[in-house]
Design goal:
This protein is an alpha+beta fold. The protein has two domains: about 90 residues, 4-Layer Sandwich (S-adenosylmethionine decarboxylase), CATH 3.60.90; about 50 residues, no CATH class. The protein has four helices and six strands. The strands form two sheets. The protein has a four-stranded antiparallel beta sheet with strand order 1-2-3-4, with helices on one face. The protein has a two-stranded antiparallel sheet with strand order 5-6.
Length: about 140
C-alpha cells in the first residue's frame, strides 16, 4: 500500500516520532479526504505536527511547530523522513518571538535530496551541458 494513503501507517509513524521526541500529545485527528488525500493534526503540549498528503502528486506537506528555546523540530522531521522516505525534502526554519529583529524573521531553508535522485539530476545536467557544447561546435 502507498505510504501516503495508509492512514494506519501514518498514525503509527506519527506516534513513534512523538514518542522518540518525548512530546506530550493533547489531541490527535486524522481524516481521509477526497482522492485518498489524508490530513493529520496532532496537538502537542509543545506545539503541533500536521501532515497533508497528496498521493496523486506523490507529495506530503509536513508542518512541525514547536515552542521553546530547546525544541528540536529537526529531530521529528528526521524521524518522519525515515518513514516516508521522500526523494526530496525542503525544510524552512522560522524562529519566532523577537519581532524587533529583522534577522529573526528571515527563514533559514535547507533542502535534502535522496542519493538516487541526485544521480538522476546530475545525469540530466551533464546531458544538457554536452548537448550545448555539441550545438556550439556546429
Amino acid at each position: 500500500m502507498n505510504k501516503l494513503t495508509d492512514t494506519e501507517l501514518l498514525q503509527q509513524s506519527l506516534h513513534a516520532v512523538i514518542e522518540t521526541s518525548n512530546f506530550t500529545v493533547l489531541n490527535t485527528d486524522i481524516k481521509v479526504l477526497a482522492g485518498q488525500q489524508t490530513t493529520a493534526f496532532i496537538l502537542l503540549k509543545e506545539g503541533h505536527i500536521s501532515i497533508h498528503t497528496y498521493p496523486d502528486l506523490k507529495y506530503a506537506a509536513v508542518d512541525v511547530f514547536l515552542c521553546g528555546e530547546t525544541s528540536q523540530p529537526e529531530k521529528a522531521a528526521k524521524a518522519l523522513r525515515k518513514v516516508l522516505k521522500p526523494e526530496k525534502t525542503k525544510m524552512t526554519y522560522l524562529k519566532r518571538g523577537d519581532f524587533g529583529s529583522v534577522k529573526d524573521m528571515k527563514p533559514k531553508i535547507k533542502t535534502k535530496t535522496a542519493h538516487l535522485r541526485r544521480i538522476q539530476n546530475t545525469g540530466a545536467k551533464v546531458i544538457r551541458v554536452l548537448s550545448r557544447r555539441k550545438a556550439n561546435k556546429n
